[in-house]
Amino acid sequence: MAEVRSQASTWGVRRLTAAEAAAYQALRLEGFALHPLQFRVAPEDESGLSLQAVGERLAKTFVVGGFHDDDLVGVGGLTRFDGAKLRHRALLWGMYVCERARGHGLADELMRILLAEARSQGIAQVILTVAAENQRARGLNERWGFSAARGGANARPPEPQMQPTNAGRAQSRTNIGEVRN
């Protein structure tokens, strides 16, 4: 388990297992309740999932969790796209750190581990979406080399520029070789 040390806390970060489905779902539902517009899925879609379905998601996708003592306080996921034309890309999704754990470097550690996993899978490009008004998330993404997409799915913007998509969201992407370690 990776550790992140701050002035007051030590965070443990590791891949989640199916056995942690209840804690994972509870944290996601907390995020949806407090920040419903910050997620690309509807709260009712997540709350309607059985613990078995959540456990299956954890078993088949790469989802990491940040822990303070034994409490799950942050999560993020990485899913590789399927198909010959898309398998060089992955979606970074579901990033959430609860209020009490923010500002101590946990989001950066989650991002570090997710991008390291992308590199280990040979993924060349990671994309994500973020609510346009979520300045904290946008700042995190920019620190890690993500820049806003412009134009079509294959466009390479000459400079960062946010492109609104549905529901006031913007899509960002980074080439794995361009992000910091």
Explained architecture:
The protein is built from 5 helices and 8 strands; from the N terminus they run ββαααβββαβαββ. By secondary structure, the protein is α+β, with helices and mostly antiparallel strands. It has a single domain, classed as Gcn5-related N-acetyltransferase (GNAT) (Aminopeptidase), CATH 3.40.630.30. It has an 8-stranded mixed β-sheet, sandwiched between helices. A hairpin with a 2-residue loop joins strand 3 and strand 4. Helix 1 crosses helix 3. The chain is globular and about 35 Å long. The C terminus is likely disordered.
List descriptors:
disordered C terminus; 5 helices; globular; eight-stranded mixed beta sheet; Aminopeptidase; 181 residues; alpha+beta
Provide a concise account of the structure shown.
By secondary structure, the chain is of the alpha+beta class.
Unreliable residue stretches: 4-8, 151-170, 177-181
Radius of gyration: 16 Å
Strand content: 25-35%
Main sheet makeup = 8 strands, mixed
Number of separate strands: 8
Give the termini separation: 17 Å
Question: CATH topology, anyone?
Answer: Aminopeptidase
Biggest sheet: strands side by side, in what order?
Answer: 1-2-3-4-5-6-8-7
CATH architecture: 3-Layer(aba) Sandwich
Percentage of residues in helical conformation: 25-40%
How many helix segments?
5
Q: What is the mean predicted local confidence, pLDDT?
A: 80
Summed up, the domain count is 1
Helix and strand run: EEHHHEEEHEHEE
CATH homology group? Gcn5-related N-acetyltransferase (GNAT)
Assigned CATH class: Alpha Beta
Task: Tell me, briefly, the overall form.
Answer: globular
Class derived from helix and strand content: alpha+beta
